[in-house]
Amino acid sequence: MRILGIDPGFGTLGYGIIDAVASRVELVDYGAIYTEPGEPIPDRLLKIYMELKKIIDFHSPSEAAVEELFFFRNVTTAIQVGEARGVILLTLREMGLPIFEYTPHQVKQAVTGYGRSEKGQIQRVMMKFLRMKETPKPDDAADALAVAWCHFLSRSYPGGARKK
């Protein structure tokens, strides 16, 4: 099973792709889609859509795992990330991928065993789990790998995933 993990964002959207066969997990790819702050919002959303489609076309994942939004203090940021997340979900559905969603707490708990772990801890654990030679960057990409890992564990030990 090839899993696409996504850490939704408006300026930076992290993605991570892993292959899971039985209990063996291999890193396929990871990175980020960036949009420019000065660009019109519709253009930024279109870029997310087009870049995400390219990633899906190139890697052909079988399932997608997306981190749910958490509380934002800044309403404008929350709306923009919500809009980006809508584009992400639409793109995944259009591409025919089953979509599973996880809260940030579920992802951190699955990866580190502690639901309030720090970004650096997520990076170090993912680096170890996926036998990476360097720290996955940006943070959003490490988080996306963690979302994919969480989904792998959820599929191996059902009970935590919410399929959409």
Automatic annotation (TrEMBL):
Homodimer which binds Holliday junction (HJ) DNA. The HJ becomes 2-fold symmetrical on binding to RuvC with unstacked arms; it has a different conformation from HJ DNA in complex with RuvA. In the full resolvosome a probable DNA-RuvA(4)-RuvB(12)-RuvC(2) complex forms which resolves the HJ. Mg(2+) 1 binds at D7, D140. NCBIfam families: PRK00039.2-1, ruvC. Its cofactor is Mg(2+). Pfam families: RuvC. Binds 2 Mg(2+) ion per subunit. Mg(2+) 2 binds at E67. It is found in: Cytoplasm. GO terms for cellular component: cytoplasm; Holliday junction resolvase complex. The active site is at D7, E67, D140. Belongs to the RuvC family. Its EC number is 3.1.21.10. This is Crossover junction endodeoxyribonuclease RuvC. It catalyses: Endonucleolytic cleavage at a junction such as a reciprocal single-stranded crossover between two homologous DNA duplexes (Holliday junction). Its main location: cytoplasm. Keywords: Cytoplasm, DNA damage, DNA recombination, DNA repair, DNA-binding, Endonuclease, Hydrolase, Magnesium, Metal-binding, Nuclease. One of its GO terms (biological process) is DNA repair. Gene3D superfamilies: Ribonuclease H-like superfamily/Ribonuclease H. InterPro entries: RNaseH-like_sf, RNaseH_sf, X-over_junc_endoDNase_RuvC. The gene is ruvC. It is an enzyme of class 3 (hydrolase).
